Amino acid sequence: MSAPLSAEQMAGASPTAMPADIEKAARRVERRQAFSAALLVLPLIVLIAFAFLIPVGLLLFKSIDNPVVAEGLPETLTALQSWSPADGLPSDAAYTGLKRDIEKAKAEGTLGVIGARLNQDTPGARSLLQATGRRLDATTDADPHQAFIAIDKRWGEPEIFGAIRNAGDRYTLNYYLNALDLTRNTAGDIIAKPEGQRLHINLFIRTVWVSALTAFVCFLLAYPIAYLLAHLPARRANLLMIVVLLPFWTSILVRITSWIALLQKQGVVNDALASLGVIGEAGRLALIYNMTGTIIVGTHILLPFFVLPLYSVMKTVNPNLVRAATSLGASPFTAFRRVYFPLTVPGIFAGSSLVFILCTGYFITPALVGGQNGQLISNIIAYHMQQSLNWGLAAALSTLLLVMIGIVYFLYTRLVRDQR
Amino acid sequence: MTSLVSLRGIQKTYDGKQLVVKNLDLEVSEGEFLTLLGPSGSGKTTVLMMLAGFETPTTGEIVIAGQHMTRLPPQKRGIGMVFQNYALFPNMSVAENLAFPLEVRKLPTVELRDRVEKSLAMVRLTPFADRRPSQLSGGQQQRVALARALIFEPRLVLMDEPLGALDKNLREQMQYEIKQIHARLGVTVVYVTHDQSEALTMSDRVAVFNDGIIQQICPPKELYERPGNSFVAGFIGENNRLSGVVRKIIDDECLVEIAPGVTVKARKVGVHATAEPTTLSIRPERVKISPQAGEVDTVIAGEVESVLYHGDHIRAHLRGLGPAPFVVKLPNTNGAAATLVAGASVSIGWASRDCLALDLMEA
Amino acid sequence: MFLPMSPTAGPLERLWHVVFSGLCLAIFAFLILPLVIVVPLSFNAEAYFTFTREMLSLSPEAFSLRWYRELFTNPQWAAAFRNSLFVAVGATLIATTLGTVAALGLAKLKPALRASVMILLLSPMIIPIVIVAAALYFFFTAIGLAQTLTGLILAHAMLGAPFVVTTVLATLSGFDWNLVRAAASLGAGPVHTFRKVTLPAIAPGVISGGLFAFITSLDEVVVVMFLASVDQRTVPRQMWSGIREQLSPTILAAATLLIVASFLLLLFAEMIRRRNEAARASTHED
After folding, report:
1. What is the ipTM of this complex?
2. Which of A11, A22, A24 lies closest to B61 in CB terms?
3. Do residues A129 and A115 lie in contact, with contact meaning Cβ atoms separated by under 8 Å?
């Protein structure tokens, strides 16, 4: 930054000779104002970066980061460089390298981690590596090839080396393949997983389906009450607004607890139906711990997110437009269909994309009331984070989920723009 | 009178492309009531904001009472300001609003109370001391804003269209009140408005702004009687414009040909040489209908297009003098308008001192 | 709660009017009943999650404060309430301070720049919470903030701050910046002006944003699940275990208390909002 102009410099300036200087001075003032404004925003940006952007970025990086095998079995990988499973068994150099790598890993205590990583692609690889590690000794030096096969006959098949080589890239797309139910055969080609192992695509489809259905049910329920709230006198509308807002302000856990009390087999709804004789004791309805439960509770939780944007759009619709339509001879229904409804479409877009996006990320509700078939993509991410400890896969699934949300958001902004 | 405020070589641009204020030099005398008048976007409010310290000039310097203010933040300038829409603090009572500048200056409580009371009395709001601004009428809010800007006894008070939100009657009353206070306290006032009658009635001097430049700065009477250029003539009051070419210059008068063979005598203001194109400006109330011989210097024939009755006066639009209707304003006395009937042919005339030859009006 | 009906309405329209009113009533019931039903159930004398025959016949023995007693005497619940309150207050203070200051800066930024900064600041509201929690787990473990209340407070502050930013920005959109200029022209420095003029004017936005941040933290369970140790469990985390492991009416008692708390917070927020609206209406009426 340069020092402010001195009085002489400014006084001596004539208007015709100035433009460049004036422009610079104006920019400087503008920059200084923008700078002081930015300074106020900075602390929050630091917090968001520290507790959100950096962590999420690092997590997403894990979806391609693959250091375990590359750093754990370096000599094996060097020996396998020009080998392909079609060549049959690798050269003795690979066995020698593998022996040295395993001994080093044993000494450093990383053998278990390497085994776990290989196990993600090849079930049984962990125990194979552990057992081999235990039984390797000086006698294997003479002919590691035969010694390995003696320890376990799987070392005499090319598949395991193919698996090591596939897992050996420092950066990998394998987690994404896995997340998309794809895999590599031993030759390294990308193929679909066998029928029974295709979990994720189905989960993505289910997540989209549940979210779309929830958004649609929310639309059906939100439209009438948003309309009512927008057209009642302010006093009564405010009172009813509290009914919409109270669930919004109440803990999700509380609401789920309530729904369990209402919907479970021995719950209030089933009890009431049974005592009214609508259903028999044996015919109690399975309303919760399944997909139905996820959708009912999801709708209840997300409904306010649809009502509020729709309500604010309805508030801006000029009531004289509908009056004009009826005075021009339209029936109330036609006036609604041709004039009022089209004007509230932006609110429907806002509400449905908000509900859809929030629902695709839903975790708590499906985890607690979804049972087996009501689980969504977030739940499998948590599963891979906490139980299977396949963090790369969890990261790849997270990235795909974010991409999906990004696409929906993009489509929404396009829709809004086309509306204008 | 000594100069209190000097603006020297001020230029201002917000975007680095367009100059909002162009090379302004302005002196304000101690105790003066100076009005900055102009259409919106003419730069007058920007000048006020630079004086107050809310904007910094891109070039140039501001000196107030001998002190360089150009880079001083507003809270250190000690200039009172009355804002458009008052800017009263809604969370404070009237008395608290008035006490605010005194608290900031750490005045002892006793003196502070005393000053607030006197100030309330000055604007006749003593019973409203504990009210919130939102509980006052527009005129009362305006008086609080005025009192608040004066209570810390600044030597200079800036007013940014302070009466813009008031209705006509209240506005006239407040104009009078502001003038009274100005006379009583002897404070220097720089006042911004786009209302010309406000500027004419209140000011010692008026600076007419247009396009970032002061077009003319002088006492109100001179502004109306002797506008310096065609913008000022058009902006202050009404005028009829006739375009023509200068044929001859005699001392401070000139002969202007307004139609082939029709030459009129005019006072020379914005013309310098013969054969120069010019705009003649004649105020509607200075035109005489069917003038007696010797009463006027110029006599011209026209045809009455329409007559409008205004109660205290009558306006007639005449055809045949230039492209626009020529407006004549007559006081409504003893049947002056009898001869004025649509379609009638009349002769009109004016004294050459009431006809100004100005610069050529563009467009 | 019914809309006024036109006096010239035909029979079909009258019928629709009745149907529509019934429909709205049902939807409002859907929204509010699940919350209301918990309250009487929490006074169940038996360990059931539903109304017993005795409760329905309103016999006094069917009701008891048993689950509330259990809630208040159980050290785990006591710790959970303490943790929740501590984390929520800490997170609210940070979120409100940073969010308010940021909103003041944002209001002065150029619209184009403001829009892109807003996307950055609001993205925590849209990103699935599991991803955020997993990411925080790795990062905070690496820097030693996992299993600390500080880590939880920072995470919850991050989740709550966007609410403060949006509510304060909304209040600022109706703020008369001339008030700040007036204060400066009267001699007040920036800090004094902020304390005496700006802050009182935007207080409704700050308070309701703070309330939002507070309930966001109070309601948050997923981040707690990933980051908190066993003795750092919060109330929702405790309820989570309750729902997953042993479903006991103690949860209903806790839920009732939380419903009452959120109802009070909501009333408070509405009161502030209305008072603010009333104040605005009266300043603009002339």
Report:
1. 0.89
2. A11
3. yes
